[in-house]
Design goal:
The complex is a heterodimer of chains A (456) and B (184). Chain A has helices at residues 7-12, 54-65, 143-147, 152-159, 167-182, 188-216, 220-241, 263-287, 289-295, 303-308, 313-317, 326-330, 349-372, 421-432, 440-447, 452-455; strands spanning 2-4, 17-22, 26-31, 35-40, 45-47, 68-70, 103-107, 119-125, 128-135, 250-251, 254-255, 388-396, 399-408, 411-418. By secondary structure, chain A is an alpha+beta fold. In chain A, helix 5 runs antiparallel to helix 6 (188-216), helix 7 (220-241) packs antiparallel against helix 8 (263-287) and helix 8 (263-287) runs antiparallel to helix 13 (349-372). In chain B, strands 2-1-3-4-5 form a five-stranded parallel beta sheet. The chains are: A alpha+beta (456), B alpha/beta (184).
């Protein structure tokens, strides 16, 4: 569903705002569950939107395309660091917090762990965080520009590398958009294989992230065991699909390859091993007061704020939001598998852990059922060189990933990518202020926004 | 509750523990002992800097620390500051926005130091080669001693690469004196 609005309608539009971007002639805004509206650009600008989540997108549109959101001119750049060709760039001015006794702590872009780059500027008073400003853009590679002028089949390699931890979900959302633009329906076997990969990816990220959170809270044992569960999944993915992260396996039109011989057995064995271990690991989480003490009430995201930002994934679902792109707007093959989506209300680190722990057995069930009902038939249809517009979504482990693209004679004329993290970063900035500085690594891990996925 | 959990754990452990390929681990340990024990005193600290990756390489770097690959058994470990590091391990394409931070991280390391570029992006920019904001791999910013290709390279390949690096660099890293000055 797409329609053109006048400037006044554009600004008055209500709904769950998902993303905003511009092309040469128009500014587009996407609302849940897939309502697309656009307004004509006037003198390189468009009226600013007041939705909470729109800020980053409007800053990004100015950095990427030079289009100004009128009424939002004062906002700092998103990914443009003003870097000289040799990479040197001036630091922006981070205004001091007015409270007496407040001071600033600067962290990054190089962090202490094995983690992506970003800069965090904390205003603190003693231990308490008063304000957090995240400066992203360090991983900006110009992905959108690289994808333009290429065929969807060629550009799929970029979609698979927007955010490596969600490579299947990004490839899937991109394929959904490209297939809609080309009027193509992928074969049923491909749809099932895609869903198997997507659930394995969700499971792999949930296990290692939950372990890493326990590790940040001082429970090395849980970290080690959960990392092992992830490793089993990576090895099963290697056996089944020929790549530990299943990169480049989902392509426009279907899947690149069939499930390998022995892949089914490897995947089922990994699922059984994880299922056997999960209850005891979960009990450790629930039994140990010192662990609960670190996560309960830490990094709060109140439900009304999650609602205002249309937070998805475990960030939204831990704060009372019911959204899951697999159900709404929904895509094949989930509609016939009675998907269970856990929802919590507390909005703290503990709730986000709980949501992810509950999604694990559900993904295990789904993969088993997808494998048991795997249809026979073709794996991939060759996309015709089409002209048209497409909007695609896939639920990554961290929330919905949206792709919009316009094909012109089989080539991508324009494209935009909205990772769920884009709406989650401002929530992290808020959540940090509900706790002390020492809790920030734990809170950051519990939201686990993608840096690469928003820097593009 | 701890003893109860422990007993349940012992009784219900269903899956056989996965182990690294024993022959491979033995061979790598032997190679490393020969090279590193003499040259480096068997303590190699790695500082990782992500300079524009998709975060896939980071996942596999973290996997090198799991129970299966257990990087520390080879005397290699990740540290939190370049000041503590012998090896700078870089992932990603070297974006323009990370250029300054990467150069500063290298400059903060005590010499002699080695630089390893991990993943196709760090080799030459990978699929992102040619973008105006991509400088084209680690070598565009700092001299590189070893590249470990792959998209992403798997944990075993990363470890094998690091062991090879230690073996190969006998001229760059001077042997540690057997007897410290003043001790004879």
């Amino acid at each position: 569903m797409i329609r053109e609005l006048s400037a006044a309608e554009w600004q008055a539009k209500q709904g769950r705002f998902v993303a905003l971007w511009t092309d040469q002639n128009f500014a587009y805004a996407l609302y849940h569950p897939g309502e697309l509206v656009f307004v004509a650009l006037e003198q390189g600008g468009y009226p600013a939107l007041a939705h909470k989540g729109a800020g980053w997108f409007m800053r990004l549109a100015r950095d990427l395309n030079g289009h100004v959101a009128r009424g939002f001119e004062a906002a700092p750049p998103a990914i443009d660091h003003g870097a000289a060709p040799d990479g040197t760039s001036p630091w922006p001015n981070f205004a001091r917090h007015p409270e007496e006794g407040a001071h600033q702590v600067a962290v990054g872009p190089v962090h202490a762990g094995i983690i992506e780059p970003g800069h965090f500027r904390f205003d603190v008073k003693g231990e308490q965080v008063l304000r957090l400003t995240a400066r992203l853009g360090y991983e900006h590679k110009g992905i959108l520009a690289l994808m333009r002028g290429k065929s969807p089949s060629h550009a799929a390699r970029f979609a698979a590398r927007v955010s490596g931890d969600a490579t299947v979900a990004h490839s899937l959302a991109f394929a959904h958009a490209a297939e809609q633009a080309a009027g193509l329906t992928p074969p049923p076997r491909a749809v099932h294989l895609r869903a198997i990969m997507a659930e394995l990816e969700r499971l792999a990220n949930h296990t290692s992230d939950v372990g890493a959170m326990a590790g940040d809270a001082g429970f090395a044992f849980l970290d080690a065991r959960f990392a092992l569960l992830r490793e089993w999944l990576c090895q099963a993915a290697q056996a089944g699909f020929g790549h530990r992260l299943m990169m480049d396996r989902v392509v426009p039109g279907g899947v690149a390859d069939d499930l390998a011989d022995g892949g089914r057995e490897a995947i089922l064995a990994a699922l059984s091993a994880i299922e056997a271990e999960l209850p005891s690991l979960r009990r450790v989480f629930e039994d140990y007061a010192s662990l609960q003490d670190r996560v309960v009430g830490t990094g709060l995201v109140p439900p009304d704020l999650a609602e205002a930002y249309a937070a998805g994934g475990y960030v939204g679902r831990a704060s009372g939001q019911r959204g899951d792109a697999r159900l709404s707007p929904g895509y094949a093959p989930y509609e016939t598998f009675a998907l269970y989506v856990p929802v919590e209300q507390a909005g703290d680190v503990a709730a986000r852990i709980k949501v992810r722990l509950e999604e694990m057995p559900e993904s295990i069930r789904l993969v088993r059922e997808f494998l048991a009902s795997l249809p026979d038939g073709a794996l991939c249809l060759a996309p015709e060189p089409a002209t048209g517009m497409g909007l695609g979504v896939a639920e990554s482990f961290r929330g919905p990933v949206w792709y919009w693209l316009r094909l012109d004679a089989g080539q991508i004329a324009d494209i935009f990518i909205a990772d769920a993290s884009t709406l989650h970063w401002p929530l992290l900035e808020y959540a940090a202020t509900t706790s002390i500085l020492a809790d920030f690594p734990l809170i950051n891990k519990s939201m686990n926004g993608s840096y690469a996925g928003v820097d593009l | 509750m701890v003893w109860k959990t422990t007993i349940q754990h012992l009784l219900r452990r269903a899956a056989p523990a996965l182990r690294p390929d024993p022959a491979l681990a033995k061979e790598m340990r032997a190679r490393l002992e020969a090279a590193a024990a003499q040259r480096l005193g068997r303590a190699l600290s790695i500082r990782h800097v992500a300079a524009g990756s998709c975060n896939g390489c980071e996942l596999e770097l973290r996997a090198t620390q799991t129970l299966i690959y257990d990087l520390t058994q080879y005397g290699l470990s990740f540290v939190a500051s370049p000041r503590h590091a012998d090896i700078l391990l870089v992932t990603g394409v070297s974006t323009r926005n990370m250029a300054q931070a990467l150069r500063e991280a290298r400059a903060a390391m005590p010499d002699p130091a080695l630089v390893v570029a991990v993943g196709d992006c760090a080799v030459d920019g990978g699929v992102f080669k040619g973008s105006p904001v991509v400088l084209g791999g680690t070598k565009a910013l700092v001299p590189v001693d070893l590249v470990i290709a792959g998209c992403p390279p798997n944990p075993a390949e990363i470890i094998a690469g690091l062991v090879t690096l230690v073996e190969a660099h006998d001229t760059k890293m001077p042997p540690k004196p057997k007897i410290l000055p003043g001790m004879a």
